[in-house]
Amino acid sequence: MDYFEHKDPVFDYNGATVYEKNPTNTQQQTNILPKKKKEKPKKKKSYFTYWVDLISLFIIGFCLLGMDFTLYTSTGIGNIFSSFPILRPDIVVSLGIIAVITAIIYFCFSGFSILLCFLTGLVAHISFYALFNQFATFYSSTDLGYPPAYISASLAILLFAILFLCKAKYRFFLACLFLIGFGAILNWRNRELAPFSVEEYQTTTENTSNSKIVNIMLPNLPSYTTLYALEDANINKFYRDKLASIMLGFYAKYHFKLYTNSFTKSGNPYLNAADSLNMDLPENIHEHLLQKIKKTKSWNFDQQNYFELYLKDNKLFDVLKEKDYKINAYQNKGINFCKKENLNNVARCLTQNTHVADYSKYNLSPFEQSALLLSDWLESTHWLTYLAKPLYNSIKSIIPADNMPLLGTSYQNLHIINSLQALDKLFEDIKQDTGKNTYFIIMDMPSDMFLFDDMCRLKETGSWKTKDNFPWVGRKNVMEKRSAYLQQTMCLYGKLSQFMQNLQDNGLLKDTTVIIQGLIGMDDLHGEKDTSLLESFLNTQMTPIAIYSPENRLFSISKNFCSVTDIINQFFSGKKCTEFNGIGISKSTRNNVMQQINNVSYTSDNVQKAYREYIEWLRTWNQQNFQSLSNAEPAKSEDEIIRPKPQMIPLEEKNISNNKITVKNVTIAPEAKVESLSEMSKKDPVIEELPPEDSTENQQSSAVENNPEPLVTEKITAKEEAPKPAVVEETPASSDVKETPATAVVEETPAPAATKEAPEKEEEKLD
Questions:
Q1: Please, what is the end-to-end C-alpha distance for the chain in angstroms?
Q2: From edge to edge, which strands make up the β-sheet containing 545-548?
Q3: pLDDT tens track for 196-222
Q4: Amino acid 667: pLDDT
Q5: Averaged pLDDT for residues 178-189
Q6: d(CA 495, CA 501)
Q7: Contact 53, 39 (CB under 8 A)
Q8: What is the rounded distance in angstroms from the CA atom of residue 666 to the CA atom of residue 284?
Q9: Do the beta carbons of residue 197 and residue 353 sit within 8 Å?
Q10: Are the C-beta atoms of 272 and 583 separated by less than 8 Å?
Q11: At what angle do helices 269-278 and 315-322 cross, to 10 degrees?
């Protein structure tokens, strides 16, 4: 039998052997090879699935951006809803713009799912990063110890992985969850926020006096001397002269004592505020400040208030508390003086909401308001921190980019639009409070962004100016900016006039002492390469301080060259100041400063002229601000203002003998290490005619010997009002006093050389 015909035995059921022939090769292949299955053609992605996927990812991206925008804008004054559930028109327009831009970007990448998922992850990253910058109260790292950028990137990668790995229907369900979350945030932020957050603490006092002290601190307040030190080529002469008249007329109308030659120690307004609250100029500028701050929470989704400085000491508040004064502090940003050593230090703390600005009181369209909101929001996210400079350099060659938000100009100070409300709130509190109260307020005016004209009317948004440009833009349009600055400063004096008039109309001015102090001057020479020390000092550190006391019956001017802090110290504690105290400038710069100061004269004629111009301007200001014209004093004729009086106007120390603080000349003797001002000035042609200076001992002996007592402002009876605006300038003891009519100005200049007999001789002449 052939091998290939071999048969394997097969047994049947009966046990018999049955041989079966081997299968052929064809049969073997048929039994071994599996049958081929017909492959079904792949189904193409339907248009329905395409649109569902695109819309789902777009909703997630828009909700992420919308939630951050809602959280930020709802920290501002008012409510994001006009009437629930209807959003304000500007909020609706802003969210619509965000939605349209987001939809266009998503549609451009709609052909690839992976790109859409990556784009959504990127949106998540920038949204989480913005949340850290806007609401995290920590700075460089989180409580976990990792930088915020890493945490936001990690969350974005996680979201990208989830979106990429899941199917389209799950992406749709995830989009619905984000939409519900966005709605929940909108409902959560349906609340009304007041311009001020108020914290009141119980205080016990048995004093029934209604004495009040108001201290108004103003950044960027210009000095009268500085204005006239600027040449016509560096400033708009019309606005300069107009502001100078308004300043002088305001102080004359309300009988302030104006310190025209006062200065501050540094260029930081909040450091200067800390120095004045401690009534001394420390060698270390951070001596009165805390280095470590206690924070109660890590995230703050309420009113946004960013403070640079916190106080370790506050001697002025301590002095006032000893005299049973209730302390009321009004703060907005920069320095927190409600606390000392991380503990509450006042009876009432009012913190002004500085973010986000409220435009509802102004005639702006929803589109204009939306543009401002979006610009403010985008800058708060810090998204363009590293891209703004290259983008600006790329765009400026095509179109002007200097005024473009984020790239050419900053919009982070838009909250200045609400700063004028602070004086209204202050007046309402003074009107309601009883007993001895002090009020310390920092107003953010004229500040760093100029939005108002001299009538406090909001300018068109295209006319807004910032004090400083971004570093890559440089100092441009300086003349236009200074003109805008001068106009906004006029607006400030209009508001101050309204405040003083309200106090007077309500009978409160007779019991109230008002201090208006500058924290820094114009301070607009940042980035100027060729600035001299003299220009820098006059521009930045020269700033006025003016004090109204109920005892003041005349407007007076002090030309002593003292720091604002020393003048505050003199007023409250009686410690006299020394010229040039607290600043380290060379002898030549001091000599130039004194020469510049002596170039500005104050006479009865220019004060009377300034008063008339101020009254006419104030009438217009009241009319433009929808107030009764009766609030503004009618303009007086020249004969009414300057008619002579038979009696002689005495010096201020005789005129306001009841005032124990401001009655005496300040000591003008230089410090031990400072060369005599008169000796330095002998060769100067401006003051060459002054007599030679005696020794320092003679100078000190010529000063008034009795030290003033600390301030105690009590209720006084109304006195006969003096002619307006009678002007008195303090005179050094060695100067001759002549009888003058009521409008005469008796200058007070740094005393060159006074003898011991000078005070007695002066009293003889006064008698």
A1: 164
A2: 196-200, 348-352, 326-331, 437-442, 212-218, 512-518, 545-548, 257-259, 555-558, 727-729
A3: 889 988 766 566 788 999 999 999 999
A4: 34
A5: 96
A6: 10
A7: no
A8: 25
A9: yes
A10: no
A11: 40
Written as six digits, the tokens of 111 are: 């052909």
Residues 2 and 12 sit within 8 Å (Cβ to Cβ): no
DSSP per position, 502-566: HHHHTT-GGGEEEEEEESS-----TT-TT--HHHHIIIIIB--EEEE-TT--SEEEE----BHHH
Contact 583, 544 (CB under 8 A): no
C-alpha of 740 from chain center: 45
pLDDT (0 to 100) of residue 15: 57
Longest dimension (CA), the chain: 164
DSSP H or E stretch at residue 327? strand 326-331
Give the C-alpha distances (Å, rounded to integers) separating 557 from 186, 519, 602, 651: 56, 20, 9, 11
Cis before residue 446, ω within 30 degrees of 0? Answer: yes
26, 209, 565 from 543: Cα distances, Å: 111, 33, 12
* Degrees, nearest 5: CA angle 131-134-136: 75
Beta-bridge partners for 677: none
Confidence band for 155, pLDDT divided at 50, 70 and 90: very high
* Cα gap 240→529, rounded to integer Å: 24
Counting Cα atoms < 13 Å in the Cβ hemisphere of 759 gives 14
Question: What value does the mean pLDDT take over residues 524-537?
Answer: 80
Question: Left (φ > 0), alpha (ψ -120 to 50) or beta: where does 692 sit?
Answer: beta
pLDDT score for 47: 75
- 130, 73 in Cβ contact below 8 A? no
Q: How far apart are CA 640 and CA 763, in angstroms?
A: 31
Residue 286 has a CB neighbour count (10 Å cut-off) of 12
Are 307 and 338 contacting, i.e. CB atoms less than 8 angstroms apart? Answer: no
Count of Cβ atoms closer than 10 Å to residue 302 Cβ:
14
Q: How far is residue 312's CA from residue 329's CA, in Å, rounded to a whole number?
A: 16
Query: If 0-12 CB within 10 Å is exposed, 13-18 middle and 19+ buried, where does residue 459 land?
Result: middle
**CA gap 46, 66 in Å, rounded:** 30
**Quick one: pLDDT at residue 30?**
52
Distance, in Å, from the CA atom of 523 to the CA atom of 594, rounded to the nearest integer, reads: 20
393-407 b/e (C-beta count within 10 Å ≥ 16 → b): eeebeeeebebbbbb
- Answer yes or no: is pLDDT of 502 > 60: yes
Q: In the structure, what pLDDT confidence band is assigned to residue 763 with cuts at 50, 70 and 90?
A: very low
Contact status, residue 714 vs residue 211, Cβ threshold 8 Å:
yes
What is the C-alpha separation between 325 and 439, in angstroms, rounded? 10
User: What would the pLDDT profile of 584-642 be if each residue is shown by its tens digit?
Assistant: 777 888 888 888 888 888 888 889 999 999 999 999 999 998 654 334 444 444 344 33
Peptide bond preceding 9 in cis form (omega within 30 of 0): no
Cα gap 65→126, rounded to integer Å: 9
Q: How far is CA 531 from CA 471, 518, 544, in A?
A: 17, 22, 22
| Gap between the Cα atoms of 245 and 319, Å rounded | 36
Structure tokens at 248: 């002088």
Residue type, 410: S
Position 533, amino acid? L
Contact 725, 612 (CB under 8 A): no
Residue 745 — φ and ψ, nearest 5°?
-115, 120
What per-residue string of b and e applies to 149-177 under the rule 16 or more CB within 10 Å gives b? eebbbebbeebbeebeeeebeebbebbee
Local structure of residue 236 (DSSP, 8 states): -
What is the per-residue pLDDT for 121? 95
CA distance 166 to 114: 12
Residue labelled with tokens 């799950």: 170
Any idea which residue has 């990556």 for tokens? 118
For 491, list phi and psi in degrees, rounded to 5: -60, -40
User: Phi then psi for 197, rounded to 5 degrees?
Assistant: -95, 130
